[in-house]
Amino acid sequence: MDVKEKILEVLKKEGEPLSAGKITELSGLERKEVDKAMKVMKEDGSIVSPKRCYWEPAP
Asked: Domains of the chain: which residue ranges?
């Protein structure tokens, strides 16, 4: 499973918007990996931000 899939899995499992720090904590991934993957995910539209610094899967 790649980093993006792991991030989406964590977001879907929790069912609420999460910060990058919380995603890092719950996924067990390195913070740098999470930040890098989330940057790409924001650009491709697979995650959206309902409020500042919190993210959820795109509908």
From this structure: 3-57
Instruction: Give me the count of residues in the chain.
Output: 59
CB-based contact 17:51 (threshold 8 Å): yes
**Phi-psi sector, 23: left (phi>0), alpha (psi -120 to 50), beta:** alpha
pTM strictly above 0.85: yes
- AA identity, residue 32: K
Type of residue found at 53: C
pLDDT in tens, 4-17: 999 999 999 999 99
The yes/no answer on whether domain 3-57 falls in CATH 3.20.20.10 is no
